[in-house]
Design brief:
The chain has about 120 residues and is mostly beta strands. Helices cover about 0% and strands about 50% of the residues. The strands form two sheets. Strands 2, 4, 5, 6, 9, 10 and 11 form a seven-stranded mixed β-sheet that branches. About 30% of the residues are buried.
């Protein structure tokens, strides 16, 4: 099913912005739903956002709604997560994943990228 590679993480001050990228090696990337998740130390993995095929119907977790925007460029086999108004509680490793539109399981994951927000 190919590989996913996240990039764009880093250290930013509270209130700042970052844009994460998720590059896929799978040529049929456009057929998959793309999701972003995050995992902070001592916490459960948390759903951040997902976007359907064709870039429609974005959905967000309650904690990021209104601050984060998910998008995709299927011509580049890449998805993005624009993060604005970052808060210290957004600090986590961020992962992208893909799944079939016919399943709720996420079988393919990237290696993650660290986002650290200082207060």
């Amino acid at each position: 099913q190919g590989q996913l590679v996240e990039s764009g993480g880093g250290l930013v001050q509270a209130g700042g912005s970052l844009r994460l990228s998720c590059a896929a090696t799978e040529r049929s990337f456009s057929n998959f739903v793309v999701g972003w998740f995050r995992k902070a130390p001592g916490k459960e993995r948390e759903f951040v956002a997902r976007i359907m095929r064709g870039g429609i119907s974005p959905s967000y977790g309650a904690s990021v709604e209104g601050r984060f925007t998910i998008s995709r460029d299927d011509a580049k086999n890449t998805a993005y997560l624009q993060m604005n108004g970052l808060k210290p509680e957004d600090t986590a490793v961020y992962y992208c994943a893909v799944r079939s539109v016919f399943s709720e399981n996420w079988p393919v994951w990237g290696q993650g990228t660290q986002v650290t927000v200082s207060s």
